[in-house]
Amino acid sequence: MAVMADRIKPFPVIDDDNRDFWEGARRHELIIKRCGDCGFYIHYPKPFCPKCWSENVQPTRVSGRGHVFTFNIVRQQIAPGIPPPYVVALVALEEQEDVRVVANIVECAPETVSIGMPVEVTFQQEDEELTIPQFRPAARAGGAS
Ligand SMILES: [Zn+2]
Questions:
Q1: Which of 101, 111, 119, 133 has the fewest CB atoms within 10 Å, counting from its CB?
Q2: Secondary element (H or E) of residue 124
Q3: What is the largest CA-CA distance in the chain?
Q4: CA of 40 to the centre of ligand 1 (A)
Q5: pTM here?
Q6: Amino acid 7: pLDDT
Q7: What mean pLDDT is reported for the chain?
Q8: Residue 72's beta-bridge partner residues?
Q9: Using the 8-state DSSP alphabet, how is residue 51 labeled?
Q10: Residues lining ligand 1 (ion), CB within 5 A?
Q11: Looking at the predicted structure, is the pLDDT value of residue 43 above 60?
């Protein structure tokens, strides 16, 4: 009964460039491609390094920590199955400031999100095939609150 066509939300198209990212998400790992020659992180994923043009690009697990670079609060229903309000953000990863991942900021009220806010990755399993990396406010140093 539950087949892929039943999925209401729009879901990402998985291709050779982003497959590592989405397969990593299913393992609850945030995977970003990284140049094996100069160390540059590359996102959105490409098969070559935009810094040194090397094709020695490898999927690399990153910490999942970063901060909100910019964001928008969506207050109107745009996509089916995604009730507003919610936050769409560009999250700058701590490994490299200009590596920015588009994600929702979850587990907090949209009004509490601010630019520069520390966040950490969390994984939302949509169904058996799709798990989406999202971000939530980073836990305070010193453990759970
Ligand atoms: Zn490079």
A1: 111
A2: strand 118-125
A3: 49
A4: 5
A5: 0.87
A6: 60
A7: 90
A8: 88
A9: T
A10: 35, 37-38, 40, 49, 51-52, 54
A11: yes
